[in-house]
Design brief:
By secondary structure, the protein is an alpha+beta fold. The protein folds into two domains: about 70 residues; about 70 residues, no CATH class. About 15% of the residues lie in helices and about 45% in strands. It is built from three helices and eleven strands; from the N terminus they run E-E-E-E-E-H-E-E-E-H-E-E-E-H. The chain has a five-stranded antiparallel beta sheet with strand order 1-2-3-4-5. The chain is elongated, with a radius of gyration of 19 Å. The mean pLDDT is about 90.
Length: about 160
């Protein structure tokens, strides 16, 4: 069986749980408990979305969210907002080097967070050509600075040497 491509003509998606959707195919058949995942969550988040069953087998594929009907787009957006929640760093309070781990204290859109980074070269990525920065902590959580050039002077000074 080949890949089943989903657009507004071939199927519809409905959210059924925090991270799950059901696929209603054009022929009326329904596949429950599918987990949508972005194949490129940082660089191309509106394209190439796979729908996985409980055994992580691909059941369906969305090339571009823009090809879906409005309700399907809403269902995916709601699932992704929970699954891919990435706190936005608004300011950097402090960065300390302790035993080879960088201890960061930052203010995010979800409050103050303290986390550690093991490898500054692999865990801090500036996405070119934008000023967007993604930081991965020692627990594999991600944080985002949407535009590093818009940080306050203190924050910019602290993060400058790590970019």
């Amino acid at each position: 069986m080949g890949r089943y491509y989903i657009d507004k003509y071939t199927g519809k998606l409905e959210k059924t749980d925090m991270y799950l959707v059901r696929l209603i195919k054009k022929d009326g058949s329904i596949i429950e408990d599918l987990e949508p995942r972005r194949l490129f969550p940082l660089t191309n988040h509106n394209m190439y979305i796979t729908l996985l069953d409980s055994e992580e087998k691909e059941i369906g594929f969305v090339r571009d969210i823009a090809e879906l009907d409005e309700e399907s787009v809403k269902a995916l957006d709601e699932c992704f907002s929970e699954y891919y929640m990435i706190p936005k760093i608004q300011s950097v309070v402090s960065v300390e080097d302790k035993f080879g781990t960088l201890k960061w204290t930052v203010d995010t859109n979800h409050g103050r967070v303290i986390f550690g980074i093991r490898n500054r070269h692999n865990d801090i990525k500036k996405l070119h050509p934008t000023n967007r920065v993604i930081i991965r902590d020692a627990n594999d959580n991600r944080y985002e600075i949407q535009d590093v050039s818009k940080l306050d002077a203190h924050s910019a000074h602290l993060i400058f040497s790590y970019l």
